[in-house]
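Margin note: ligand = zinc ion.
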Amino acid sequence: MDSKILQDLKEQLEKTAGELEVEIKDAKKSPDFGSDTEGGVFEEEADEAEEEGLQLGVQQALKERLGDVENAIEKIVRGNYGKCEKCSMEISMEVLRVNPESRFCKDCKNK
Ligand SMILES: [Zn+2]
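Resulting structure:
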């Protein structure tokens, strides 16, 4: 693969990793429970619990994506970037441009 393109993708991935780290940090912040002291409205509490669960799900998804991004950066450094982790075929540029952290080729991804 063209080293210039590879360098571009690496920069893009590093930027994405930085953004994801910030987002994960933000997602960790505990929601505002200030309204709790104003009296026990059970409905509200249920809503907050639901919200918290949602937040954990978001955080989990962000962490997984960050894992993929870091994995891709490592592969660029090691020089084996751009190969499908399942079938070892080269992942097309078309896929990498849209999704540089992609671990699989189009075919394997669609299976
Ligand atoms: Zn594949």
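Residues 3-81 form one domain.
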